[in-house]
Amino acid sequence: MINIKAIANIKESFKTRQVKYGGYAALLTLAVIAALLFLNLMAGQFPLQVDLTESKLYSLSEQTLQVLDQIKTPVKFYGLWRPGEENQDVITVVNLCLSRNKNVSMDVIDPDRNPGFVIRYDRERQGIARGSLIVEGEKGFRIISPRDMYDYLQTQSGMGVSGVAVEQRILSALIFASSGYTPVIYEITGHEEDLLSEHNLQDMVERENFTLKTLNLQVSAIPSDASVLVINNPQKDLSSGEAEKLLNYLENGGRLLVLADYSIRSLTGLNEVLASYGLQFMYGIVRETDPNYIAFDFRSIWPDIFDHEITKPLMDKNKTPVILLESMPLSILETRRRTIQVSPLMASSPNAFLRTDLEEDSADKKPSDISGLQIFGAAAADPSWVQDDEKQTRIVAIGCGSLLPIYTFLGFEANRDLFMNSLTWLEDRPGTISVRSKSILQMPMRLNMTQIIIFGTLFIFVIPVGFFVTGLVTWLKRRHL
């Protein structure tokens, strides 16, 4: 027999506050679950990805995208990998290239099963390492070895990976494969200069699609194929004959990169060349007194970086800073041709001073010292505007002969990037300036005294007092309930 009263009690129970709230909560939970399932299904239909890595390891730079957009002929990537041994860093960048331009495609080749394919590209018969990437276009091909995909840094525990250079290498290979042009850089010798090979930069320069050669101006003329001349940390000055050759070269749209410091001692010949374009080295060593600009001691400086095509990529605070050691400043001459544009690249604080008497060892400022802001690097262009096929003379001068040794021995990659950016700007290839290796090193936060006081006050005083006051107010309210 059906208990009518029991059924009525059950019906009444559904009208209670607890059941109503529970029902609402259950319905709301089901609605949220359904919404999440719907959003998940919708998200799966769109290949949307967000690169949250600090150095944007899984994104292409704007410069690479521009180069890809300009490729109108077929370009093929060949990955030399055994099945299951693919380099995911390379695959990620290549897939981004494929999605950007339909003229770009890729095949994975097992080198053990296809030795004839590998031999076709091994023109020097030195072998091609397994794991290499071949980039081939109508104008030629480039081979990127697995070691070239990364930057390495010597540490106390051995050689370690410091950065991912996949995009940088692929961009350089794409430029060559689509153009077939390789500019030639000549290192000036005969003045006890530092060769780039001594700082592990020869391979890097060649990977940037440059050909590197040496040139002694005392015995040879400047070749017609010279794209850029480099004078790196000379210990002796230029002769009058060498200076004249450089001036003639520059007058015809030449490009020159100079790294020098006080060790050159005599600056007559070098300054003769630079003064024609509004620049002049000032003999001496800059000493810094502002602690916010001091890297290790008063001779090592973390300079201010000015906005320029060369330095813009270096202004990212997450990257290693440019460090200058025992630097010699530059003077930007007011007396110069109106067609010449000179842009400072780096400078000290206004509290620095130039010591011209190098026999004086005192850290204190002396009457012979020159006070004020000191410029460490500058870029000059003549004419400042370019029309049609007009040649533009370009010069980059940096008053730090130890710029590259600081990278070689201390691992400050921004020093290397400053040098490489200068080369690519001189060669008028701005598209590759911003594409450098993506560092995986974690740099410590560098705070000045004002920031230390602000953050210290916030975390040591303001936040704890805020919690204490909030707890006290809550306790007082509950006490009187």
Shape: flat
Number of continuous helical runs: 12
| Strand coverage percent | 15-25%
**Head-to-tail CA distance between termini:** 53 Å
Which radius of gyration do the C-alpha atoms yield? Answer: 31 Å
Give the second-level CATH assignment, the architecture of the largest domain. Answer: 3-Layer(aba) Sandwich
Main beta sheet, described? 8 strands, mixed
Task: Give the neighbour order of strands across the main sheet.
Answer: 8-7-9-10-21-20-17-14
- Which whole number gives the mean pLDDT? 83
How many domains, as an integer?
Answer: 4
General description of the model:
The protein has 481 residues and is an alpha+beta fold. It folds into four domains: 14-41; 58-181, 3-Layer(aba) Sandwich (Glutaredoxin); 182-439, Rossmann fold, CATH 3.40.50; 453-481. The protein is 33% helix and 21% strand. The chain has twelve helices and 22 strands. Strands 8-7-9-10-21-20-17-14 form an eight-stranded mixed beta sheet, sandwiched between helices. Strands 2-1-3-4 form a four-stranded mixed beta sheet, with helices on both faces. Helix 4 links the parallel strand 1 (75-80) and strand 2 (104-109). Helix 8 (240-251) runs parallel beside helix 9 and helix 10 crosses helix 11 (413-426). The longest helix has 31 residues, at 449-479. It is flat, with a radius of gyration of 31 Å. It starts with a helix and ends with a helix. The model has no long low-confidence stretch (mean pLDDT 83).
